[in-house]
Amino acid sequence: MQRRSFLKSLGIGGLGLTLLPSSGRAEPYEGPLLMTINALGGWDISNFCDPKGNWMNERYDTVDIRTAGNFAYAPLDTNGAFFDRFHRDMLLINGIAMRTAGHVEGARHAWSGDLADNGTPALAALFAAHYAGAQGLPTPYISSGGFSRTGNLVPLTRLGDPATLQSIGSYELERGILGQAGYVHDFALEEVFEARRRRHELARPHELPRYQSQRSKLFATQLTAPLLRRYRDYLPEVGSTGTAWKSQAATGLAAMRAGIGASVAVYVSDFDTHSDHEVRHQEKLMELLDTITYAVDRAGELGLLDRLTIVVTSEFSRTPEYGMNGGKDHWPVNSMIVMGPGVEGNRVIGATDDGLLPRNIDLETLELDESGEHMMPGHVHAALREHLGLTDFAREAGFDLRIAPPPIFA
Prior knowledge:
The protein has 410 residues and is an alpha/beta fold. It has two domains: 30-166 and 235-396, 3-Layer(aba) Sandwich (Alkaline Phosphatase, subunit A); 168-221, no CATH class. The protein has twelve helices and eleven strands. The strands form three sheets. The chain has a seven-stranded mixed beta sheet with strand order 5-6-1-7-10-4-11, with helices on both faces. It has a two-stranded antiparallel sheet with strand order 2-3. The chain has a two-stranded antiparallel ribbon with strand order 8-9. Helix 8 (209-232) crosses helix 9 and helix 9 (244-258) runs parallel beside helix 10.
């Protein structure tokens, strides 16, 4: 990829620049972090975290269902290793009523909490806008695909391949201000940056708005170049991650460790198994669990786990019964996994019945209650926003869900 195209994809060239810091050099971001992991296409929760057995699944029976702590899981492939390792850290929400079986609508509902097309941003975008949107970071919100709406609150950066990203910052190092580092001391570089800032501020009142905008973009690029250079230091070796999905996690975590990003959206695709479900879908589930495990391990290596919240879900699940060619179709019920700081693990909230339909729940006590209501994505997102400190920011930005948050994280 040519440098110009790459910088444009990063949001540091042309119109994709982040907000300009008011003064001084851009500082690395050191606040809370969020990673969302999307099972793109609609995962089969009955083969994973909401097991049923018997007629619903060809590969195991009800009597074969296994447990780890308070979790029940389907006894397939790597599920056991995953739940044995992570059940103490996980909160699982089952029986989420999606109210749709469409990919676009389901993804919007699952990742924003809003079924209607009201412009509500994805959770990861809202998070980045609140915590890092005004810091002038080059990549506050990174998404490799899937529902990535920003609500015009924060720039969106597309990243994913370490092989491409190893060269990041090289141009600035060889040709720009960073190249002076080999000849002058740090204090002198600080003076160079300060001189450029003063020239920028002096020129602004005398320029037309178009030129002011262009100068601001150039200046912001100069300020963030050192942060971009640091980013390369935290990328894994090219080819070491094994899959494209883990590469997404690796590049996002590298940006977080370098202090140039606050949130990253990762996806694992091809869950939409309308044929040969048991063969194709289980391979994808194993890739998903491998990606989650890699993200946790890599975040630990980079010293980020005490700041990182991980949210995992899909746009919906798969039908209880098999269709033609051994496939399963779309089913408007869902589950979500949350791990991270302040999340009480070994907890399961909500449930489905034997037909994989959502059971009613008392939204104040979170106990199953036939006179209660269905848990919907809006309830979960209202609670997530409260837990992540986003409620007031979202309301002020015009994206209030107008739903009382149930005490999911209380």
